[in-house]
Amino acid sequence: MIAGIFxxxxxxxxxxxxxxxxxxxxxxxxxxxAFLVGIxxxxxxxxxxxxxxxxxxxxxxxxxxxLVVGFVVxxxxxxxxxxWLLGYIRTHRFTxxxxxxxxxxxxxxxxxxxxG
Length: 116
Fold this sequence. Notes:
The chain is mainly alpha-helical. It has helices at residues 2-5, 11-21, 27-55, 64-91, 95-111. It contains 5 helices and no strands.
């Protein structure tokens, strides 16, 4: 619902925002929870896509080596990014992210033609 009112709001941001509204004063814990909640969703989406490929007969034509390498590299980079973000959140506020989102949203509203 938040993304409907504030376009560009991510699932993680909405989860963190809800945790902060619910009284959580620990930003790092709210952020960690937001990322942990996303793991089952990502696995389910990946499993669903793989199932579609296998059922559609496309498994033989897939580059499985590239898929495995991409999975491993993205998992390592995600771990590094989340570790950095959790460290950042412990010592900083979300204000820069909020300012960035608002400024970028205003810029898009002003620069993108409406098509009318």
